[in-house]
Design brief:
Blueprint (H helix, E strand, L loop, with lengths): L10 E4 L3 H13 L3 E6 L7 H5 L2 E4 L12 H11 L3 E3 L9 H9 L3 E2 L4 H8 L1 H10 L7 E3 L6 H8 L3 E5 L8 E4 L5 H16 L4 E5 L5 E9 L5 E13 L2 E7 L6 H17 L4 E10 L2 E8 L6 H7 E5 L2 E4 L2 H10 L10 E3 L2 E8 L1 E2 L5 E2 L2 E2 L2 E3 L6 E4 L6 E2 L6 E9 L2 H14 L1 E3 L5 H9 L1 H4 L7 H5 L9 H21 L19 E7 L2 E9 L5 E5 L2 E11 L2 E6 L2 E10 L2 E6 L2 E7 L14 E3 L4 E6 L6 E2 L4 E7 L2 E6 L4 E6 L6 E2 L4 E5 L9 E4 L1
Helix pairs in contact: 4-5, 12-13
Length: 678
């Protein structure tokens, strides 16, 4: 290619946020390219904003007001002189109008052509195009206005998947097992798709209950060169969203890899594809069916980067997919062929989310009080730091943690340990569930189909042992006394707990869940402490207690833990993970009002609709109202038969976590509410 045909990128605007914005900034800086970030009001203090060379406020809090506002993003390009835009994933990454507008402004678009995006952006048209490339697809029927949905479902056969034609990320999707649930699933999926993508077109597709989700990473330049970078398996999912991904797949043989790779490249050639993209398939045995083409970088691209090797001239190197995207956008050729690419070892990625697995993975926005990745154990692509908020306005992903090893079993073990050693405290998260999944014999055996979570049911929370709770309480007590001694204004040279006479021991109380842990301790002449923890006697020596770390010896057993105080709560991190304990006041505090029959908001969000009024009689399971949070819709239903005595919210209201929504009479113990995902 003539040298003057290359258009070097000098200033790249990243039309995204969080971990992917940081990921793109990192590679751009490595390539000598300046960067521009754009940000919503709630992201003003986010790490990606600081790490970019320039950052422009978009003015607004929601996705629609900021990252989805093409005019604001283009204005930021003009204001900063950006000569290229990388959209990351989500938001405007697959918006043909935005891609066209960027090109019309004379700015390089880091991604495929708008024609390719348009062709694959509608899943129904994508199926028709892919069928022309002789790639197998699943039966599907579009739900046009007036379509008999019952007849369409019967034609495809149950179970059937209700699926949004636009967008992705598991939104606008429902699996329907029988005719009774069809109408409600279509209504909910249509509403969610319209809100998330601005397009409520739906179709029905055959649902393969126990298959694998396997995708092929493709890469093409603007000169007609196309290769695939092997497969990723993404079968471990909840709500049709991936949470664990790996490469290569245990179910894909060399022969099957060649067939699937050839099918993916054929599909890409059919639409004249360039840049990075992914062709997704369902795999059942040796049979596979096309699902969709993601015309962008995927969240799980790191596992491909970890295993794909480019071998040329006797030298092997890893591929950086963001670098390849930028090179392609500048007009460079790939410079290698399929024969130059090989697989090295195994890689696994786990997505850390602010969600509560014990409440059916309900999103749990809040503040990350402590974020400390494990040192040297894994690759972390994160968008947070200690003190970062996880907003209800955006996806609840906190970070991706990736490990690479010579074997799959070793990669899984490394990742599980890295997650255990990662300090993540302050909000509910799925870290312990991920560890349980990675250590489960079924996962280790490669028995990873899309129904894994329902079929295998890994523990959704860690069973914290009594010893861990005791150690955490001792660590908090010893750290607190050391802190008080260090801050003492008088007798500061005396050892902690020193007395010149026999005095009563120091006392404190903690609580973990429903368990109260009383502690008494007394300093000894040798500097150790005699302790009574809920009636159990121990001798504790403190070797170090400062800067958030306490190093103890408990009855001859050495333990090193991280400790942070946040109000009345102590966040303790030990060898197996986190323990949060509450320090109880020395004097009783009046309890909070126990509202009988009150249904409260399970998360901060917006009230989309209310379906009841004061005086209405309701039955158990009846829909009361719908709340939207973190791009998901949740149904609040009646937990028992009764009548509505108070309604505290209306459609359009924004509510905080725990806000009182509805009062019902004759409530059982507790608030009793139930929530369901739409």
């Amino acid at each position: 290619m003539p040298a003057n045909a290359i258009q070097p990128i000098r200033r790249l605007l990243i039309a995204n946020r969080g971990e992917i914005a940081r990921r793109i900034i990192r590679t751009a800086h490595d390539m000598g390219i300046g960067t521009v970030a754009v940000y919503a009001d709630g992201d003003v203090g986010a790490p990606f904003v600081r790490e970019a060379d320039t950052a422009i406020a978009l003015g607004g809090r929601t996705s629609a007001e900021t990252y989805l506002d093409a005019d604001k993003v283009l204005a930021a390009c003009q204001r900063t002189g950006a000569d290229a835009v990388h959209p990351g994933y989500g938001f405007l990454s697959e918006n043909t109008g935005f891609a066209d507008a960027v090109a019309r402004a004379g700015i390089l678009w880091v991604g495929p052509s708008s024609e390719a995006i348009a062709a694959m952006g509608d899943k129904l048209s994508a199926k028709r195009i892919i069928q022309e490339a002789k790639v197998p697809t699943l039966p599907a029927i579009e739900l046009k206005p007036g379509e008999n949905i019952e007849a369409a479902a019967e034609k495809i056969g149950y179970p059937v998947l209700v699926k949004a034609s636009a967008g992705g990320g598991g939104r606008g999707m429902r699996v329907v097992e029988n005719p009774e649930g069809l109408e409600e699933a279509v209504t909910g999926a249509r509403r969610e798709a319209g809100a998330a993508f601005g397009d409520d077109t739906l179709f029905l597709e055959r649902w393969v209950t126990s298959a694998r989700h396997v995708e092929i990473q493709i890469l093409g330049d603007t000169h007609g060169n196309l290769v695939h970078l092997f497969e990723r398996e993404c079968s471990i999912q909840r709500r049709h969203q991936k949470i664990i991904e790996e490469a290569p797949s245990t179910a894909v043989t060399g022969e099957l890899r060649a067939r699937m790779g050839e099918a993916a490249v054929s599909a890409a050639k059919q639409i004249g594809y360039s840049s990075a993209g992914t062709v997704e398939f369902l795999l059942d045995g040796d049979d596979f069916w096309f699902l969709e083409v993601n015309t962008r970088l995927q969240v799980e691209h790191p596992v491909t980067e970890e295993i794909a090797r480019l071998a040329q001239g006797g030298v092997q190197r890893r591929l950086d997919l963001v670098r390849e995207q930028l090179r392609i956008a500048e007009g460079e050729e790939l410079g290698y062929t399929q024969d130059d690419l090989t697989i090295d070892g195994h890689a696994i990625e786990a997505r850390l989310y602010a969600e509560d697995p014990e409440r059916d993975f309900l999103p749990s926005p809040g503040t990350v009080l402590e974020w400390v990745p494990a040192e040297g154990a894994a690759r972390y692509d994160s968008g947070v730091e200690s003190g970062s908020p996880v907003s209800q306005e955006f996806d609840p992903m906190i970070a991706k943690v990736i490990t690479h090893a010579p074997t799959r079993r070793e990669a899984a073990s490394r990742l599980a340990r890295a997650l255990e050693q990662t300090r993540l405290q302050g909000l509910s998260n799925n870290r312990d569930f991920l560890v349980a999944t990675l250590r489960h014999p079924a996962f280790i055996a490669g028995d990873t189909t899309t129904d894994f979570i329902e079929r295998i049911a890994p523990p959704r929370a860690r069973d914290v042992s009594p010893q861990e709770v005791t150690d955490a309480a001792i660590a908090a007590a010893m750290y607190a006394q050391a802190k008080r001694r260090a801050l003492a204004k008088t007798l500061s040279g005396f050892p902690s707990g020193w007395r010149n006479s026999r005095m009563p021991p120091e006392r404190t109380r903690y609580r973990v869940g429903d368990e109260e842990i009383p502690i008494e301790y007394r300093s000894q002449r040798n500097g150790s402490f005699e302790m009574d923890v809920a009636g159990e006697q121990s001798t504790v020596a403190v070797f170090h207690a400062e800067r958030g770390t306490v190093d103890l010896e408990i009855d001859g057993r050495r333990a090193r833990m991280s400790v942070t105080e946040h109000g009345d709560n102590w966040l303790v991190h030990g060898p197996s993970g986190d323990v949060e304990i509450e320090e109880l006041p020395r004097l009783p505090v009046p309890g909070l009002l126990d509202i009988k029959g009150g249904l409260t908001a399970p998360m901060p969000g917006n009230v989309l609709a209310t379906h009841i009024g004061v005086g209405d009689t309701v039955q158990a399971g009846q829909l009361l109202l719908v709340i939207e949070a973190m791009k998901m819709q949740h149904r609040i239903t009646a937990p028992f038969d009764g009548s509505v005595t108070e309604v505290h919210v209306a459609a359009g209201d924004q509510v905080d976590n725990g806000a009182l929504l509805v009062m019902l009479d004759e409530a059982p113990e507790g608030n009793g509410q139930t929530t369901e995902k739409l």
